[in-house]
Design brief:
Blueprint (H helix, E strand, L loop, with lengths): L1 E2 L5 E3 L17 E2 L1 H17 L21 E3 L9 E2 L7 H10 L2 H8 L8 H11 L1 H4 L4 E3 L1 H10 L3 E3 H4 L5 E2 L4 E2 L1 H7 L8 E3 L4 E4 L2 H7 L6 E3 L4 H9 L5 E7 L3 E7 L11 E4 L6 E7 L3 H11 L9 H7 L10 E3 L17 E3 L7 H25 L4 E8 L5 H11 L3 E4 L4 H13 L6 H8 L2 E5 L3 H14 L2 H10 L8
Parallel strand pairs: 7-10, 13-19, 19-20
Antiparallel strand pairs: 1-2, 3-5, 4-6, 8-9, 11-12, 13-14, 14-16, 15-16, 17-18, 20-21
């Protein structure tokens, strides 16, 4: 994405990369070289539009999926495919961490619980299962930071992204030496830490030749997808909340101080805006739920075409006539911290069809995001203004369902791709277009519309949400081969 000095998107391009490789259930890997191939293709495509002269790019901002483990040797070569955010193989390593350190101490060190999604637990899996690879590690990067390395040769990371590694002292915005000492991870493996708008690298001559960029172009630290998405949506002040539906779903609230859930159900991370923090809850399979259903119902159709599905779903009333979807295709993070629970449709009868399934998926994802809003309320975190983003904000039906399920108005913005837009705004701050992130957002963010909740639909969803809250304990009891009380 190319953004001008006025904060307007003037060009953008998306390049598909290879699908996730899953050798076993719960495993998820991607080849970092494929990300670099896609990055080069997109950069070339944007520069080829001719909307900016050669050399006009003032700075580069980076964003991407969080939590992945990219392992490099001393020569900078990739040692193995990256274990990405939705890889769940490290459950045993989480158990070991909790037993060796204690859950309370892990929260004290990092402000977050041990989860298989985080980078550290993936490293511990490699240490145990692939010791020959672990012995050759010289650098550990997250996915977007590998692209920075290929662009510049620099090893750097922003504190927002680093918060999702389980190796950062989030309160003090520095690597947690006690956590590294306890797990055998060497500090020299980890990249240098920066605030998101800081310039931390420059395009190398080799990368300039590969991409068409000008050597020496500044690169700011950037942020993980959720941190950049919050900037792109203007979620900077307490009371502002975003609900982003991408592959995963995230409800994100800005805070002035580190706010910790003592039970670890929410993540506490550094904000991409320096000197601030955020809390967020995560639904593992949000947009992924709809993609999965589309593959089943419309095999062979273009991956980005969802209009027919959502048009059918509009014919079904709120509540999907009793059908519920539990979106646990990859387990769940918020509020259950359970990588082993699995998804289910509940309440089907012979009168239900594909339209009911589709609407139930849209509603089930919204219920799962409401779980996080419920936790915010419990912890006294204000949620006065909600902005929606990601693929879920492109669908008018899904926007309306979110407003109705949350029982609050939701805003959507003119710039649909909030994640890349946020990374571009951070680059603009680094280039000096704006003095800080607040000024960038105030200048560039434009509200396109607002969806008001329908009182009748909200009444239905309040009732159905109570039914939805009973799904998790029921599904967990089936998995564990035992019965439990189903009251929540």
């Amino acid at each position: 994405m190319l953004v001008n000095r006025a904060g307007r998107v003037v060009a953008s391009h998306a390049t598909e990369h290879a699908p996730i490789h899953s050798e076993h259930p719960g495993w998820a890997e991607q080849d970092p070289e494929d990300w670099w191939r896609a990055a080069q293709a997109s950069i070339h495509a944007v520069l080829a539009t001719g909307v900016a002269r050669v050399g006009a790019v003032a700075a580069i901002g980076l964003t991407g999926q969080m939590h992945g483990a990219v392992l490099l040797d001393a020569s900078g070569d990739v040692l193995r495919p990256s274990l990405i955010w939705c890889d769940l193989r490290s459950t045993a390593q989480c158990d070991w961490l909790n037993q060796a350190l204690g859950a309370e101490k892990i929260l004290a060190y990092t402000a977050n619980p041990a989860l298989p999604n985080f980078t550290l637990t993936k490293l511990l899996w490699v240490k145990q299962q692939e010791p020959q690879i672990f012995a050759r590690i010289a650098h550990v990067l997250c996915p977007k930071d590998y692209i920075r390395y290929r662009l510049s040769g620099a090893f750097a990371i922003d504190v927002q992204e680093a918060s999702g590694t389980l190796m950062l002292d989030v309160a003090h915005r520095t690597w947690s030496q006690p956590m590294l000492d306890a797990t055998g991870v060497r500090r020299e493996w980890l990249p240098e830490l920066y605030e998101s708008p800081e310039v931390c690298a420059h395009v190398s001559p080799a990368a300039a030749q590969a991409t068409g960029l000008v050597a020496g172009t500044p690169i700011v630290a950037g942020a993980g997808d959720q941190g950049a998405g919050a900037v792109g949506l203007g979620i900077l002040a307490p009371g502002s909340v975003s609900a982003i539906i991408g592959t995963s779903g995230v409800v994100f609230a800005a805070t002035d101080t580190p706010t910790l859930d003592p039970r670890g159900r929410l993540h506490t991370f550094c904000h991409a805006a320096p000197g601030r923090w955020h809390v967020m809850g995560v639904t593992q399979a949000a947009g992924l739920s709809l993609r999965w259903l589309k593959t089943l119902l419309q095999p062979g159709t273009p991956s980005g075409s969802y209009q027919a599905l959502t048009a059918q779903a509009e014919t079904v009333p709120a509540g999907s006539e009793g059908v519920l979807w539990a979106p646990y295709l990859f387990g769940e993070r918020t509020p259950h911290l359970d990588p082993a629970v699995r998804a289910a449709f509940v309440g089907l009868d012979a009168t239900h069809g594909p339209a009911h399934l589709t609407r139930a998926v849209l509603e089930g994802v919204a219920y799962s995001l409401r779980d996080t809003l419920t936790l915010f309320q419990e912890l006294g975190i204000p949620a006065r203004h909600i902005r929606v983003g990601g693929g879920g904000a492109r669908s008018a039906l899904w926007r309306q369902i979110q407003a109705d399920v949350y029982g609050q108005p939701v805003e959507f913005l003119a710039a649909e791709e909030g994640v890349a837009f946020g990374a571009a705004l951070l680059a603009g701050v680094g280039a000096g277009f704006w003095p800080d992130v607040d000024a960038a957002c105030a200048s560039a963010i434009e509200v396109a519309g607002r969806m008001q909740p329908n009182p009748q639909a909200t009444q239905i969803y309040d009732r159905e949400y109570l039914r939805y809250r009973r799904l998790y304990p029921a599904l967990a009891s089936l998995r564990e081969g035992r019965t439990t009380g189903l009251d929540v």
